[in-house]
Specification:
- This protein has about 160 residues and is mainly alpha-helical.
- Helix content is about 70%, strand content about 0%.
- The protein is built from 4 helices and 2 strands; from the N terminus they run ααββαα.
- Helix 1 runs parallel beside helix 3, helix 1 packs across helix 4 and helix 2 packs antiparallel against helix 3.
């Protein structure tokens, strides 16, 4: 059964990562007209990055809920949703240790390609820096929660 707290975590994540960050990129870029005619390669690349990134993030969220029995919303050590109870090392976690963040970064890279401004890229870099600090905090928790099992996973799986 999905708890209200879990739903709040999914909604908060969706608003922040799928809507708010692209909006910030658009605002930082000077609010360009989104319907500007672009070339075919530009549109195709944008679509591939946005859909691929969202696909990886959604796969990871579903996998985390079904296999890890938890919720992805843990922010700088503050539990927003129930934490995963099992270390996940297969599925999307076979690709790297942070597939949801990787998907989000790819999704936002699609917005950089669409907007094609240095300001959008700067927002991406700032987001990455903040999220990298979150990843380091999360790694400490995972080491505490899963010990040697997590250490072994780290030895053979990239962070990103």
């Amino acid at each position: 059964m999905i708890k209200l707290r879990d739903i709040a975590g999914y909604v908060l994540g969706g608003i922040m990562f799928v809507a708010l960050l692209p909006t910030i990129m658009w605002l930082a870029s000077g609010m360009p007209n989104m319907a500007v005619h672009i070339g075919a390669w530009h549109a195709i690349l944008t679509g591939l990055l946005i859909l691929g990134g969202l696909g990886l993030s959604i796969w990871t969220i579903v996998y985390m809920k079904t296999r890890g029995k938890g919720n992805p919303m843990d922010a700088f050590g503050k539990e927003i949703g129930s934490r995963t109870r099992h270390l996940m090392t297969d599925g999307p976690y076979h690709l790297n240790r942070n597939p949801m963040l990787t998907g989000t970064l790819v999704y936002l890279a699609g917005w950089i390609v669409w907007l094609w401004t240095w300001q959008a890229a700067l927002v991406w870099v700032a987001f990455f820096a903040i999220m990298f600090m979150q990843v380091l905090t999360e790694e400490k928790r995972l080491r505490h929660d899963f010990g040697e099992e997590y250490e072994a996973y780290c030895r053979h799986t990239r962070r990103f």
